[in-house]
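Folded chain entry
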Amino acid sequence: MVRFPAVAGQFYPAREAELKRLLGTLIPAETSPEKAIGVMAPHAGYVYSGRIAGMTFGRVKIQNRVVILGPNHHGFGAPQALFPAGNWQTPLGEVPVDRELGAELMAMCPQLRPDESAHQAEHSLEVMVPFLQMLNPAVRIVPICLGHNGLRDLLELGDGLGRAIAKSSHPVLLVASTDMTHYESGAAARAKDLLALEQVLALDPSGLYQTVRQHGITMCGVLPVVAMLAAAKILGAKEASLVHYGNSGEVTGDQQQVVGYAGVLFR
């Protein structure tokens, strides 16, 4: 099965040459990639969040196997939906889904279901893929789209992901896709987002989940980040570092209604 792009020409260029040129400006050439357990990166249109995504992905070694966790914005499909096999097409070509790793993850994660329907219109995972392709043309992916899940579900998923990846014969990079606060002033968004990022940098999945709920933080990918934090701890993560924080108003010039973006590395 081929999963065709849903937002090429909207969130990022639909033509290969144009997309390559843009990615070349968004990914810093001077950075030296380092090994990481995972990254958190934003998934808005590249004109808004691409610079922070590029800075983040440019800092890490993109392994041949990458698990991408993203939120389900549309509500289709299973609450924990894994795209099980086939290829994802982007303007840069097709990226194979790592069927073997996907099967290993489902064996360890009882609630994870093979489900293509959750992925067809979802942009949060799709916009990650060209960055991965650009930095490692040999990359294979396991896309996981998360809908409504409670904290216990997410911690169980993260535990299973961590245990499965720990047994993998090849290195695996985790990617959690999220934007931060939506449609508040730049100052209000920053204040809320720093509360969430404090928990992310403390490697505290439960703390992040509770903080976002308590303060009404509209961090759309909080569920993927909670699951990734739980997995990263199983995999021995000792620290997280903020690559950059910003918002859409830095592009539009309007700080009255912004969306916040952050890039984080986990080692």
Summary: The chain has a mean pLDDT of 97. The chain has one domain: 2-266. Residues 151-166 form the longest helix (16 residues). The chain is about 40% helix and 20% strand.
